[in-house]
Write a structure and sequence with these properties.
Length: about 550
Amino acid sequence: MTDKQLLLLLRKGRGRSMTSESYRVMIVDDEYYFRKLLTNFIDWPQYGFVIDQEAEDGATALELARSGQYDLIIVDINMPGMTGLDFVEELRSSHIQAKIIFITSYDIFEYARTAISLGASYYLLKPVDEDELIKALQEIRLELDREAENTDYFEQLKEQAERAKPLIKQQFVRQLLMHEQSVKQDVLDGQAEYYNLPLNAAYVVVVAEIDRLSERFHKEEERQLWRFAVKNVLQETLEGAGAHCEVIDGEDQLVVVLAGFPEMTDSALYGLCEHARTFIDHRMKLRTTLTFGQIYESLDQVHLSYSESLYALKQKFSNGDNRVIAFVQEHIDAEDAVFSTPLNRVEWLAVIRQRNAEAVLAKVDDICAKLVHNRAGKEIALFVLMECVSLGSTAILEQGGTLPVGWMTDRHKLFGQIYSLETISSMQQWLHLFFNEVVFQEMNDPSPKRRGSDIVGKATAYIEREYAQEWITLQQTARELSVNPSYLSHIFKKETGKTFIEYLTDVRLDKAWEMLRDLTPDGSVSFKVVDVSQKVGYADPYYFSRCFKKKFGVVPSKLLQ
């Protein structure tokens, strides 16, 4: 159900006007004695009604109906001046939906037809028959009871909708920002009006990201508190300049503000954002990056401003944090530009092999400066970072060194920080640490071979213990030992002269030889071969037999004969 449909539904409810347990009735007739006769004709409360008012002409009755609220009006058609038909037509024009019983002394078809068109509940002839009047009142009472129940339901629904309105409004704003609107303009305007969003405004989206939020504050409660503080500062700053603001939580812990100004320019908006950022930085000691998109004149275009704000936020990686970044159309293709030959591996390896830390760090600074100049996006920058890591690991292994435990995994303190790097500057600092505290320390360690032997020793012991498990692999063993699979493969071949799989195969087949030599030749030979193959980690006995013959020159069954 759309918001507009909900509003129309809620507006259908009509409030009850019962006095205690009775519905209110007004009698309209120019004959005084008939009014008194009708008042005393039946026991009205017995049927759920009370005579609340009388009127001798249509004009007086209309004034009473507009100032009060009546559930049932009994009106004579033939009155001087304003007739009963004219009176009810005026009621309907005033959106007064009281039930109507017409009474008349004339059985004229045209009267009856007009009465029906005006929504009359009953049409009675004078003199009024008591049974007919009671029947009419009973049916009208049932209708009013049903409407009263519906009114109660709609009132409850309206109350629930009002309570949920702030949340629904946030969802509406989120839809405006996330998606191009497919509804018609008048429907969108109706929704905006319902949620009190100005239609004639210059709209722009401002995005705020607290720099290194998760790194500084480890508890979600703290992060929520600081985001709330930033929301308040932004909202007060923009509203102080005349904006209507809607603030929501964006993805990845962003603060998103949809601001509608009577009028606004890019330079004035930049000044407002810089004022807010400075306040947050100096008073709250929070480094915060603010971005904003272009200004649009229609709500159905704010999704463009939001997309532009997010795009501008990507520039934080090259521009740096704790600043205001405005979307610039000319930079739209910079992120996709080809960063040709970012690293010359030969030159870099030559410098690293010489253990010239100063020269290596100079090359790091130079490549980072090029990334900033080219406005490189985070993806390209991380590609360069991984190239540096590859160069460092190559140099370590060339020197017979050992890659640290947890290499290239989150278990390593330094590598666990890679995907939280927010700027090229922070990436530059990371690479300085990488080369100084990891690469050169490993290359200068006097006992790398012993440590490499320790890892290989643990790997061979693991194989001796788990060779019967079909699932044992190089990758699984590396995880067990908390080392990089490529590094384990390298030092394993270097220490044992065999690849990991060659070593595992030899252990399994040697164990199988011992088992087969210990078996007696009686019973089923094929069953025993299958049993042995499974015990040494081979699910396929035919593949086991081929491997066995390749190593020992005979098939397993020959050992049992």
